[in-house]
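Two proteins were folded this term; both appear here.
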Amino acid sequence: MKQTFRFFQVIKTCALGLCLMGASLCVNAKSDIPVMSAEPFDTIVDGRAVALYTITNGTIAAQITNYGGFIVSLYAPDKDGKYANLVTNYSDIHHYLNYNLGMVGPSVGRYANRIANGQFTLNGKQYQVTRNQGQHTLHGGTKGFDHQVWEVVKASGKKLVLKCVLPDGTDGFPGTLTTYLTYSITKDNGLSVEYEATTDAPTVVSMTTHSYFNLNGIGSGDIMTHQLTVNADAITEVDRGGIPSGKLLPVEGTPYDFRNTVTLGDRIVAGRGFGFPFGPRQEIPEGKVAQYDHNFCLTHSKANAVEKVVTLFAPESGRKMEVWNNHPGIQIYTGARTAIALESQMYPDSPNHPEFPSVVLNPGEKYSHTCIYKFVK
């Protein structure tokens, strides 16, 4: 994947909290954040303006494009106060226009993760949705959130509000789905991602943000020294295609137990010859895995509570990131080894598993999902 950082601008933040761009000066400036230039992202798609928006609190900064709701960059200081982009990205909008399930941080919906055979039954009616991963549906099909120009409802220095309407029948899903997506920077150095959605007919909904993180900075090497903690007692059992069986497997005594902090390299086998997508399947030593691509069943104190569920720490840079959410699952994916995905979600293939938390959204109801990526000391 092409990743270049040739285009930069500097955010200067003054004591009054004003965010000034480019060569502008500010009295008592307390931080310089070298964010990407917005110019390579300015274009028109289907007659609608596309741009790159920067939000910041002066300590961290994020950049999002309203095409697909992609998080293009996320900057936070290391232990020495130096900045780096911590999410995988492309260098200009043209790469995003040709995006196809790549590692670049899109907004994902209307249904994140997999639906087996692209089929499900809702209120007695069977639906066939677009299959875009072999015989299965992945991340909403081919015309989901990541291929839409979102309407910009509000853009300010700390908040970006986007709107997307997926018509009834898009990729075979029922119901016209209206979604508001809010990115904001919190006072305590978090990037908050909030989804709210309504429908005019019964449908199924699970949304996520699919960013990949390297807390040492993108391009700095692999993530095998990163330390991970996950508040989950079980995972969903899946087959080789990532489709759940319906069983929840306790993590105790398995390589999936991250209830206490674990260094990723202690669990993931070295090299790239241990199975898809890196080569032929080989025997994996006991207590290790080739990669992680699993839904972890999170432990919350109460339903819909926004609580800390994951902590990721990079000893080299000293950056520590907490993930807070109000959803029952998080997909952890390390296939690239150079970055890790932490996808807050409902369980995969839930429309076909009534024993899983419900993903049905009816008219008059509101889907609400909050996920916060918070940088702490």
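Next, the second protein.
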Amino acid sequence: MSITNAAVACGWLLLSLLLSAPIARAGGPAYTAYGDERLAALITEALERNPGIREALLESQAARHRIPQATALPDPTLSFTWHAQPPETRTGPQRAGIAVSQSIPWFGKRADQGAIARKLAEAHDQTAAMRRAEVVRQVKLAYYDLAYLDRAIALAIREEEVLRLYESLARAHYAQGVGLQQAVVKLQAETTRVLNRRDSFRQWRTQTEATLNVLRDRPDHERLAKTRLESLPPADIDENRLHQLARARRPEVRAARLRVASEEDNVRLAQRQHGPDLTLAAAWGAVGQRRDEAGRIAPPSDNGKDTASFTVGITLPLHRSRYRAREREAVAHLEAAKAAYRRTVNEVDADVRNASVRLTMIGARIARFEKALLPQTEHAQRSTEAAYSAGTIGVLDLLDSEEALLDAQLELARLKSDYMQALAEMERAVGTAFPGEPS
């Protein structure tokens, strides 16, 4: 195998090893699955397989490889000279020469370049952490949509069964001459409406499954088992503490802070450009023996002796306007990075505030549904059903009561799903597990 082919093969091998590495080791904000093993398994799989996370990790690894490049010396220069017409010297004709020169940046330049590259690599690490946190959030949002849809489909199926029972009861009333054919028709129409709603839920569930499969890098048609919500974890909303936590833990804030630090190093590097760079060189010259008449009659003691020389040089930073322009550019980038940091902090504060308000409002609505609205609706439905069976009210009253109960049950299921999604949004907002211990 040639050297070129071997290098290509090694490159492909290294790339395959990188692609097969577990992405979850990249680190990132902690998260909690609230004790739900299925959710934890889905998140773990997404973190290991998601192409977006893999892309961000490889970009971070690439940024790490820029550090030794930034701190390395420039390549030395090797030059060879052949004299077509050798110049005569006292010791003989100078036929050829070899020289090696090395440029050395001014003191501190390489250290600053390395610091900049290191901080930018760390910023890429935070970008990978952002991608990781966002994937966790998206998995949770889709998972809780799935939980709501499975509950909604179950309610629609139960409602269909109840309406079928009512239809058979209406047919019996009509056969006994105490009911109207119109009642049967209305019940059939309501059954059709419920079936259409159920089909909409199933279509929505298929789309949500596809979203989860994409996040896990699975075929989009892969089926997922039914999901249900258990007890809702309580959320302690202390906005001051959450704001502090978010500013300390959000990857976006950390990345913005690192960019400010790298721009500070860049300003210092721009200021060092006023210093000259050094050049060290060593040369060797091949000298032949003298062949002229004087040289042959009285050759010098060092006749034909090769020469060696050493050179020290510096650049002359005369174009001060260029260096001052670079320094002003670096200062402008620094101020822009500071402005970006302030913008990021403000956005993070807004995320925490919005998540806090949403969690509080959804929790209050769930409490009202569970303590008042749903029990009242269930009681009204039972009373209406008994009255219809006794023949004291018509089918329209029965349908209104049944529809109100179904809507209340669906709304409560949606609120519970929204509550868990709001917890996921808060977790993303603060940049760490909320609430509970991290997984």
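The radius of gyration is 38 Å. The chain has a mean pLDDT of 86. These notes refer to the second protein only.
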